[in-house]
Design brief:
2 domains; Creatine Kinase, Chain A, domain 2; alpha+beta; single chain; Glutamine synthetase; Gln_synth_cat_dom; 31% helix
Length: 451
């Protein structure tokens, strides 16, 4: 790999500015979306065409325990990691000159490892491509900046802004509110520019210290890579200013949760035509089929869109999060929203996914639902007009319910891959069992002496 520097994207080359990098981080995203891998001197990286990691990194729970692959012995075989140089980007917060490179993952026979989240998304995109379609996504990222929380037993609090006061809630779209933590935002912009990541916009959301970051539309795998990178850079920017950035779905009581809204459209690979629009500009049958797929199949993948016990605290009426899968035009109370757009930009927004989900798996799950809708040709329920919070709740309310639905959907398991689904279910079941062993402050306060 002596010529590997010649394969770098423009932004990475510009960051180096003719200098030789000191270190390279060889990384992949695990089931939780956490960066795993190896860091090594750039001189050593240049001499190796591949690297190795055990498959157990995809069997690890968020607490660090390990689940089993159903029906297989736990032997931890090595996977082969090959650098995808199109993803090479700076790590601008480091003291030395460091690059990050996402790696492709295959087994020792050269086959894509089916339980790797990035490969799951590639699999779903491949199903679209095989039919002459190209899925397009535009994600929105919501997150909180919070005061340092070094004691998990203490509640999370909003950070202190430049005014000396805690960040205020109920200040959506306020410019002065987002200016309260301007230095963090400035570093986010600077880090993103150094990494060649484009930000479409940043705004204050409804929660105290809650920020929304919008990304431009594009290829699903590339956008998932960018969210993976953004989560890390945003955390690093916050730490520089004595606060935390959290992507937890519901970190603060009585505040809104954080979503990863996903805007979807599909274009013909050859012509680039948006299949959601007719030549006269009207809505196409394919548009309705896609929405029907989301309505029909989304309950079976809520386990991927809301992966933790905390995720379900976000689904609360009137807190800017859906409680059902109704759809509506320009209606933010519905789980599926059709934004105002020109025919060539016609799209549907999935508002169900939480920001705590793995971006590869969240986007893959949403695309899988739309794909099944296109194949099945079904029709959605009638458009919901009015306040959808007054409707019935129609999504799973906890991890156990979501996993039951996930395990009972053969069509979804076929699209996402049977081995991946079995591993994901095993990991999440173990996480839930671990959670059930924890006794909460609420239980001690209200049950210890009263029941």
């Amino acid at each position: 790999m002596s010529n590997w520097l010649d394969q770098l994207p423009e932004a990475a080359t510009a960051y180096l500015g003719g200098r030789k990098p000191d270190e390279v981080e060889c990384i992949v995203a695990d089931l939780a979306g956490v960066a795993r891998g190896k860091a090594m001197p750039a001189s050593k990286f240049a001499t190796q065409a591949r690297f190795y990691l055990p498959n157990s990194i995809f069997l690890q729970t968020i607490t660090g325990d390990w689940a089993d692959i159903p029906g297989q012995a736990f032997t931890e075989p090595d996977m082969i990691l090959t650098p995808d140089f199109t993803t090479a980007t700076a790590a601008p917060w480091t003291a030395d000159l460091t690059l990050q490179v996402i790696h492709d993952i295959s087994d020792q026979a050269g086959n894509p490892v089916s339980i790797a989240p990035r490969n799951v998304l590639k699999r779903v995109v491949g199903l679209y491509n095989a039919r002459g379609w190209k899925p397009i996504v535009a994600p929105e990222m919501e997150f909180f900046l919070v005061a340092r929380n070094t004691n998990p037993a203490e509640p999370v609090e909003a950070p202190i802004g430049r005014s000396g006061r805690k960040a205020a809630a109920r200040q959506a779209y306020s410019m002065s509110a987002v200016d309260e933590y301007g230095p963090v935002i400035d570093d986010i912009y600077d880090f993103a520019e150094a990494q060649g990541l484009e930000i479409d916009g940043i705004l204050q959301e409804g929660g105290a210290g809650q920020v929304e970051l919008n990304l431009r539309h594009g290829d699903p795998v590339r956008l998932a890579d960018e969210i993976f990178f953004f989560k890390r850079l945003i955390r690093e920017a916050a730490l520089r200013h004595d606060c935390y950035a959290t992507f937890m779905a519901k970190p603060i009581e009585d505040e809104p949760g954080s979503a990863m809204h996903i805007h979807h459209s599909v274009v013909e690979t050859v012509t680039g035509r948006n299949i959601f629009s007719e030549p006269d500009g009207g809505e196409s049958p394919a548009f309705m089929h896609f929405i029907a797929g989301l309505q029909t199949h989304m309950p079976s993948v809520v386990a991927l869109l809301a992966p933790y016990v905390n995720s379900y605290r976000r689904y609360v009426p009137d807190f800017a999060a859906p409680i059902n899968l109704e759809w509506g035009r320009d209606n933010r109370t519905t789980g599926l929203r059709v934004p105002v757009a020109e025919p060539e930009a016609r799209r549907v927004e999935n508002r169900l996914a939480g920001m705590d989900c793995n971006p590869y798996l969240g986007i893959a799950a949403s695309l899988a639902c739309g794909y099944l809708g296109l194949i099945e040709g079904a029709q959605p329920k009638p458009e919901y007009k009015g306040d959808a919070y007054s409707g019935d709740e129609s999504i799973p309310r906890n991890v156990s319910e979501a996993l039951d639905l996930f395990g009972a959907s053969p069509s979804m398991r076929s699209v996402l891959g049977e081995e991946f689904c079995a591993v994901y279910e095993s990991v999440k079941t173990l996480e839930y069992k671990e959670f059930l062993q924890v006794i909460s402050p609420w239980e001690r306060e209200h049950l210890l002496l009263n029941v």
